[in-house]
Design goal:
Elements: E1 27-31, E2 35-39, E3 54-59, H1 80-97, E4 98-109, H2 120-130, E5 134-142, E6 168-174, H3 192-198, E7 202-204, H4 210-213, H5 222-231, E8 237-240, H6 247-254, E9 258-263, H7 266-278, H8 283-286
Parallel strand pairs: 2-9, 3-4, 3-8, 5-7, 8-9
Antiparallel strand pairs: 1-2, 4-6, 5-6
Helix pairs in contact: 1-2, 5-6
The structure holds S-adenosylmethionine.
Length: 287
């Protein structure tokens, strides 16, 4: 693959830079015809790449819910205010790594219920806009997961009932101009039926099974598949800064897009590489 994100020469790295740092500078540990896997801290991606080149960012970050992603590399139990500061750090990095006209699709819950009810989606909308992204739209992912519905607040009483929406959100942002004309031979691959269905911002499909995937919080391939077809051209560069089991990279490869995934946990890096090897590449088919 030609330079997707050009690694900086070693003397261009500045590990002592004055910014919050929670992990190592990402390094490329796997490359194939379509995809790069980088192991490290995505908040430090700027220290590893010099070319802003991501046309589409798709990700589902940790939500500070105490999920065990391997506590030695990332502890998912920060206080909410520190968590939001951390979000600001990597949202800024992503803005700089995005190409002009790049889009970012961030999958987040509406609310977080850990340590009291938090409007996490609203906080993300605010932070992303504050660091430079322009808001485009919201897609509701109707995951139909009602198995978590156990806390009622006050049962059958208006005293303090809890209302829980069994949905997640996908916030869509862009950098610069939203319009990306199909020039320079760019072409898309979305069908008429897909376009009609997916431009209605209520998507209904099931979530992924963590046990089957071998990762605590994967999203299903259908999620990046739709976003990639809707928001990118063939041969665009798709970035997932929290790649987990590699779902976004697998979807991108099958759809003939180049992709880069960053993951801090080496075990999940290995899982991503295995999943990439197990999926058939669409780049060859795309010519
Ligand atoms: C919600 S999961 C992503 C799951 C992914 N969408 C999938 O389908 O498998 C978030 C991932 O971010 C990783 N992570 C946490 N902090 C990170 C950081 N600073 N840089 C890169 N990856 C990080 C975690 O190890 C975890 O695998």
């Amino acid at each position: 693959m030609s330079a997707v994100l050009t690694p900086l020469p070693p003397d261009g790295l500045d590990p002592s830079a004055d910014r919050p740092q929670t992990g190592d500078i990402p390094e490329v540990i796997h490359k194939d015809a379509c995809a790069w896997v980088m192991r490290g801290d995505s908040a430090r991606l700027l220290e590893a790449v010099e070319t802003p080149a991501a046309n589409l960012i798709i990700t589902s970050p940790p939500y500070a819910l105490g999920v065990d992603y391997g506590q030695t590399v990332y502890a998912d139990d920060q206080p909410y205010t520190s968590y939001l500061e951390w979000v600001r750090t990597w949202a800024t990095t992503l803005y700089r790594v995005a190409a002009a006209g790049g889009r970012a699709c961030i999958n987040i819950p509406l609310d977080s219920n850990k340590g009291g009810k938090r409007a996490i989606y609203a906080d993300y909308l605010r932070i992303f806009q504050e660091v430079g992204w322009t808001y485009q739209t919201s897609i509701v992912w109707n995951e139909q997961n009602i198995s978590r519905r156990t806390a009622w607040g006050s049962w059958l009483s208006p005293s303090a009932p809890f209302v829980t929406a069994p949905v997640e959100m996908i916030a869509v942002f862009y950098k610069g101009s939203f319009r990306r004309p199909a020039r320079d031979g760019r072409r898309g691959d979305i069908t008429r039926d897909e376009f009609l269905a997916w431009t209605l911002g209520m998507w209904t499909f099931a979530g992924a099974n963590p046990r089957r995937v071998g990762h605590p919080a994967p999203f299903p391939e259908e999620l990046p598949r739709r976003l990639i077809k809707l928001y990118s051209y063939l041969d665009d560069v798709v970035l997932d800064p929290f790649v987990g089991s590699g779902t976004t990279l697998v979807a991108a490869s099958r759809l003939g897009r180049r992709s880069v995934g960053v993951e801090i946990n080496p075990t999940f890096c290995d899982l991503t590489i295995r999943n990439l090897r197990g999926s058939s590449s669409g780049l060859a088919a795309a010519g």
